[in-house]
């Protein structure tokens, strides 16, 4: 039986707040690439905490990668947060705009890749390898100078042996950051996946609307 760990929006906001300082100390990103769908919300929250006074907002680009396939719930009539099972290969559902103009914005930058959870690390390995390849190709084709550096940020890292690997330099230089480590055999349930919305929240919203 997989242990489910439920996280709230508030806890995620606090994790991002706590991590922002560490990210700024270690990396100073110019741009974020959120892996959809789980990386979108953390990337947006991080953007607020990473913004320096009178500095620009850090742009967020999105890529879509899919490794997991949904398992039918044991009781299909029960709305709950579904646990998923790993697929075997990463599928691209969305990728960068590979036009010269768009790619020239990535060359020579510090790029933070954001996802919600690092499980087998297959998705992160794919994202880092493919993004490094595409940016290096664009750098050569456009004749641009400057090293592009990638870092990875996840809310949760599962404590387990990983199938995927990240570049040695990334790990050594502290460019892999996880806000929290969770047990390897758990399933983290994120609030944006919830199918059951808490009654208390509805009550609170109703109360606010009627005041
Ligand atoms: P990995 O490639 O590291 O095995 O899996 C990464 C992706 O699988 C995540 O981006 C996420 O979509 C999904 N995933 C893996 N473990 C969990 C989990 O515990 N909870 C949720 N909600 N998604 C997970």
UniProtKB/TrEMBL annotation:
It comes from the Eukaryota. GO terms for biological process: GMP salvage; hypoxanthine metabolic process; IMP salvage; XMP salvage. It is an enzyme of class 2 (transferase). One of its GO terms (cellular component) is cytoplasm. InterPro entries: PRTase-like, PRTase_dom. One of its GO terms (molecular function) is hypoxanthine phosphoribosyltransferase activity. Its EC number is 2.4.2.8. Keywords: Glycosyltransferase, Transferase. This is Hypoxanthine-guanine phosphoribosyltransferase. It comes from Ramalina farinacea. The gene is HPT1.
